[in-house]
């Protein structure tokens, strides 16, 4: 075994301490933790946190992190004092919307294996006698939630690490990062220097300052968050235990509560956002003076607190802080390695709640080369460049502060700054009354009001409540028309790169699962795997020339992964072409008829079969045409440069009139995708799944030679899997579930929903779900829990639409 690398951890907050523990436990014992202030003292966010651990999260990975934190801190103590108290968690609703949302949260918890219960006001008051049951409509009780003792947990983990050889050094402020040949070699502090093979920045809200030392944007904003303690409660006189009642969340008023012996601590998110540039935070001397408690900001919170817990009226706010911690544009942590400086890693914007889970995942990533948990939502590389602009980071992070306890629909967009990225078709789409939502900075049409008069609108089943938000029956009509005639879909936001050079083919062959050594003009659907066979992404690779490939990817993370693996000799290059180009998906049975009138290129099936690509002119516009679709129709993706996008749109639009062409949006797209059973990476499939479980084994060619992940797949097949991504249909057409709901078999939780949509052509309500194989046989009755209700579902044969591929493979 090679000697363990020298690791320097920057920051001895809970994240740095947890990481030192997890690394040393895995045998990386040469760990030095440098802390600018004193150890386990006031200074960082950890020292200000009251340590509430509510595990339930919309993101499975975050729930998993929290579960591990509970499990780990539950067994830790510092000199006999516990690091965690399993007092339970109670979330209460004072509005009908919140009551419904608590049922949704109960579903998320269940889907992630966290036991919980929905309870009535009486039970809420029984669990937490201080609250006024007349004020609440109901509650959500999670018995395993509780209170961490953040400084204790930090120190206990540090001591274990020290026991295995780690060093913790106080009063060492890192001011420089040493590097050589693209790798870190050490850090310098104000008074010394430390050699390192790996530097881990766990600097919390100081992250951006450390990032600047290595030209790395760390998109987080330190924000003040108010935390106050009352004077002693007369009704708690004589109490000696630190806390016994559940930690309490009152999201309707942006509040949470815990006990401090005979006092109550109150946290508030209801006040105005109070961001502070990371540079302006002092170091290690506690809170900057401009962030002392501002009572005026706490007034409304106090009123709401007394309203819920009337006995607080007998007390007053005795002390308060405007404590600082990190907020990110999407509320998720920042984990990963610097894209341009090997060995510089980041684990920042992490709550106490997720600290142990994050540390374990990071240690697995570093030591084993791969975390067990899907980290794509936390990946430092997930951002588009435009999302890293300082104003963007500020506005979105402020919004994620404001929305921290809001009831959020999965499609609900952040509002500012918009519009930011627009395809060249934007003006035309706006003229057609597009309803836009944002993704990756892009404005994307979901449906077009111009299609409101299509007779098909009347054939679309109505929807209720949540399923009706950000939805219109027009999208359904667009899907029906796309399958009957032809539609234009804006695919510009689908990320793409060009991979070029003499080493391009061997590079892509090594990185992906399918056979790419085909003639120029071929397109191949293929997978990126990690070394353990987990699916990192699914791609289309179009061979445009002997040494030129266009690769359709899923996110910036794919590009980062590919770049990291480029051959060192410069024989292959990657260049992202998304921003300078645009794409129309022209799909539907009449797609060929429309295209052929506009081009001298032969688009017949004989001349251009399924999964083939050609350069052609569409009217005046040079395009790369690829015969494929993500929606299961005859048709082409047509790429051109951004300057000609307008012309391409107008040319196709005009020629299409004779064929009844329409513009169609994402709603139609998503519905058609699920009818055809195409997987969406990141939602249906992640690194936690192998290709066979995901139903993507057809894209793996074990006999093609080496590729990343091949060895791990040896001996695996569709026959050996124990769980499967499974197609379900739901009888009730009005209830289209949102995703993330638990699936029950014989009354017991068995799996969870990934994507769902109504299939307008097949006339069925579709949900894909991860299930153990024994529950994945067609015809198996199951139930999906949706906002607290069990809805009947049944396993279906997939794909629901065009199982024989007749529609897209043939000349149609
Ligand atoms: P920190 O604890 O800030 O540690 C970072 C360390 O890095 C600091 O000690 C700092 O001195 C050091 N450092 C920075 N720059 C350098 C440098 N150049 N050289 C050397 N050292 C450096 N989370 C929950 O889960 N539950 C809660 O109930 C909760 N309540 C909160 C209430 C308040 C009032 C606040 C402020 C936060 C709360 N949080 C809560 C959030 C939580 O405190 C933080 O997310 C968490 O402590 C972050 O840990 P960390 O180790 O990343 O950061
Ligand atoms: N277009 C392009 N690239 C992409 C996507 C896209 N890359 C990312 C993502 N989408 C990949 N997803 C798919 C999923 C399915 C198909 C295409 C892209 C598809 N699959 C055929 C099938 O399953 O029948 C593949 C069959 C085969 O390989 O023979 O069409 O939308 N450019």
Compute the separation of the termini in Å: 59 Å
Find the CATH topology of the largest domain. Answer: FAD/NAD(P)-binding domain
Poorly predicted segments: none
Structural class of the helices, strands and pairings?
Answer: alpha+beta
Alpha plus pi helix count: 18
Search tags:
812 residues; alpha+beta; FAD/NAD(P)-binding domain; D-Amino Acid Oxidase, Chain A, domain 2; Gyrase A, domain 2; 5 domains; eight-stranded mixed β-sheet; 23% helix; binds flavin-adenine dinucleotide; binds (6S)-5,6,7,8-tetrahydrofolate
Report on the structure:
The protein has 812 residues and is of the alpha+beta class. The protein has five domains: 7-81 and 150-220 and 330-382, FAD/NAD(P)-binding domain, CATH 3.50.50.60; 84-145 and 221-327, 2-Layer Sandwich (D-Amino Acid Oxidase, Chain A, domain 2); 426-492 and 582-671, Gyrase A, domain 2 (2-Layer Sandwich); 503-571 and 679-713, Alpha-Beta Plaits (2-Layer Sandwich); 720-812, Aminomethyltransferase beta-barrel domains (Elongation Factor Tu (Ef-tu), domain 3). The strands form nine sheets. The protein has an eight-stranded mixed sheet, with helices on both faces. The protein has a six-stranded mixed sheet with strand order 11-2-1-15-22-21, with helices on both faces. Strand 17 and strand 18 (255-260) form a beta hairpin. The chain starts with 6 loop residues before the first strand and ends with a helix. The mean pLDDT is 96.
Quick recap:
With 812 residues, the protein is of the alpha+beta class.
Q: How are the secondary structure elements laid out?
A:
Blueprint: E1 7-10, H1 14-25, E2 31-34, E3 52-53, H2 60-73, E4 77-78, E5 81-82, E6 84-85, E7 89-93, H3 96-111, E8 117-119, H4 121-127, E9 138-142, E10 146-148, H5 150-163, E11 167-169, E12 174-180, E13 183-189, E14 193-195, E15 198-201, H6 207-213, E16 221-230, E17 247-250, E18 255-260, E19 263-268, H7 295-308, E20 317-327, E21 334-337, E22 344-348, H8 352-368, H9 390-402, H10 426-431, E23 434-439, E24 442-448, H11 473-484, E25 487-490, E26 496-500, H12 504-511, E27 523-529, E28 535-545, E29 548-552, H13 556-564, E30 573-576, E31 581-587, H14 591-596, E32 613-618, E33 621-626, E34 635-641, H15 645-656, E35 662-664, H16 666-676, H17 710-713, E36 723-730, E37 742-745, E38 748-759, E39 764-772, E40 781-786, E41 789-795, H18 806-809
Parallel strand pairs: 1-2, 1-15, 2-11, 7-17, 15-22, 25-35
Antiparallel strand pairs: 3-10, 4-5, 6-10, 7-9, 8-9, 12-13, 13-14, 16-19, 16-20, 17-18, 18-19, 21-22, 23-24, 25-31, 26-29, 26-30, 27-28, 28-29, 31-34, 32-33, 33-34, 36-39, 36-41, 37-38, 37-40, 38-39, 40-41
Helix pairs in contact: 1-5, 1-8, 2-8, 11-16
Bound molecules: flavin-adenine dinucleotide and (6S)-5,6,7,8-tetrahydrofolate.
The site of (6S)-5,6,7,8-tetrahydrofolate has 12 residues, from β28.
Domain FAD dependent oxidoreductase: 6-365
Domain GCVT N-terminal: 425-704
Protein name: FAD dependent oxidoreductase
């Amino acid at each position: 075994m090679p000697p363990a690398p020298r690791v320097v951890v920057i920051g001895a907050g809970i994240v740095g301490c947890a990481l030192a523990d997890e690394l040393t436990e895995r045998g990386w014992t040469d760990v030095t933790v440098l802390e600018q202030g004193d150890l386990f003292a006031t200074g960082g966010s950890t020292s200000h946190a009251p340590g509430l651990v509510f595990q339930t999260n919309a993101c499975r990975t975050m729930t998993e992190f929290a579960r591990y934190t509970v499990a780990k801190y539950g067994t830790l103590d510092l000199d006999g004092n516990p690091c965690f108290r399993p007092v339970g968690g109670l979330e209460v609703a004072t509005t009908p919307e919140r009551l419904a949302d608590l049922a949704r949260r109960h579903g998320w918890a269940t889907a992630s294996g966290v036991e919980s219960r929905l309870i009535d006001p009486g039970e809420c008051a029984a669990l937490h006698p201080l609250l006024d049951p007349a004020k609440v409509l109901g509650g959500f009780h999670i018995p395993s939630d509780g209170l961490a003792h953040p400084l204790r947990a930090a120190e206990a983990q540090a001591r274990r690490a020290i026991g295995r050889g780690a060093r913790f050094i106080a009063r060492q402020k890192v001011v420089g990062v040493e590097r050589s040949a693209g790798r870190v070699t050490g850090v310098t502090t104000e008074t010394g220097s430390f050699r390192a093979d790996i530097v881990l920045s766990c600097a919390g809200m100081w992250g951006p300052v450390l990032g600047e030392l290595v030209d790395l944007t760390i998109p987080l904003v330190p924000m003040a968050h108010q935390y106050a303690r009352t004077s002693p409660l007369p009704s708690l006189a004589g109490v000696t235990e630190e806390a016994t009642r559940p930690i309490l969340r009152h999201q309707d008023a942006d509040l949470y509560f815990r006990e401090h012996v005979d006092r109550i601590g109150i946290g508030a998110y209801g006040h105005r956002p109070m961001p502070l540039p990371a540079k302006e935070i002092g170091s290690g001397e506690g809170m900057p003076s401009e962030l002392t408690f501002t009572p005026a900001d706490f007034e409304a919170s106090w009123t709401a607190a007394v309203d819920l817990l009337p006995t607080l009226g007998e007390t007053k706010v005795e002390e308060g802080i405007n404590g600082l911690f990190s907020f990110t544009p999407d509320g998720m942590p920042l984990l990963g390695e610097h894209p341009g400086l090997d060995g510089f890693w980041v684990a920042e914007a992490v709550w106490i709640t997720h600290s142990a889970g994050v540390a374990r995942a990071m240690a697995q990533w570093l030591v084993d080369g791969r975390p067990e948990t899907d980290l794509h939502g936390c990946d430092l590389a997930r951002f588009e460049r435009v999302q890293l602009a300082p104003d963007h980071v500020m506005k979105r992070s402020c919004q994620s502060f404001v929305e921290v306890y809001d009831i959020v629909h999965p499609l609900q967009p952040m509002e500012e700054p918009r519009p930011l990225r627009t395809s060249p078709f934007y003006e035309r789409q706006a003229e057609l009354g597009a309803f836009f939502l944002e993704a990756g900075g892009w404005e994307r049409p979901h449906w077009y009001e111009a299609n409101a008069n299509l007779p098909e609108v009347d054939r679309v089943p109505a929807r209720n409540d949540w399923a009706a938000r950000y939805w219109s029956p027009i999208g359904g009509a667009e899907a029906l028309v796309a399958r009957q005639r032809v539609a234009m879909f804006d695919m510009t936001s689908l990320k793409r790169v060009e991979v070029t050079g003499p080493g391009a083919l061997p590079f892509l062959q090594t990185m992906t699962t399918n056979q790419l050594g085909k003639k120029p003009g071929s397109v191949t659907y293929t997978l990126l795997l990690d070394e353990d066979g987990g699916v990192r992404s699914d791609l289309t690779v179009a061979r445009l020339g002997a040494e030129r490939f266009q690769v359709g990817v899923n996110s910036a993370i794919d590009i980062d992964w590919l770049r990291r693996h480029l051959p060192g000799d410069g024989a292959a290059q990657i260049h992202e072409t998304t921003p300078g180009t645009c794409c129309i998906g022209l799909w539907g049975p009449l797609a060929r008829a429309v295209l052929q009138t506009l081009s001298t290129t032969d688009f017949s099936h004989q001349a251009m079969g399924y999964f083939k690509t050609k350069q052609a002119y569409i009217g005046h516009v040079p395009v790369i045409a690829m015969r494929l679709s993500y929606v299961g129709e005859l048709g082409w993706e047509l790429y051109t440069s951004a300057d000609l996008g307008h012309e391409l749109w107008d040319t196709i639009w005009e020629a299409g009139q004779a064929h009844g062409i329409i513009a169609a949006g994402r709603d139609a797209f998503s519905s058609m995708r699920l009818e055809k059973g195409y997987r969406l990476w990141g939602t249906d499939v992640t690194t936690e799944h192998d290709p066979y479980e995901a139903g993507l084994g057809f894209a793996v060619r074990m006999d093609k030679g080496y590729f990343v992940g091949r060895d791990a797949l040896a001996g695996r097949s569709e026959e050996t899997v124990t769980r499967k991504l499974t197609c379900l249909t739901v009888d009730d057409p009005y209830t289209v579930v949102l995703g993330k709901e638990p699936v029950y078999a014989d009354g017991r939780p068995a799996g969870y929903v990934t994507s769902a949509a109504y299939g307008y052509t097949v006339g069925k309500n579709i949900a894909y779900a991860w299930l153990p194989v024994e529950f994945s046989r067609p015809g198996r009755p199951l139930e999906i829990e949706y906002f607290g209700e069990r809805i009947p579902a049944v396993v279906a044969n997939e794909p629901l639409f065009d199982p024989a591929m007749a529609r897209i493979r043939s000349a149609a």
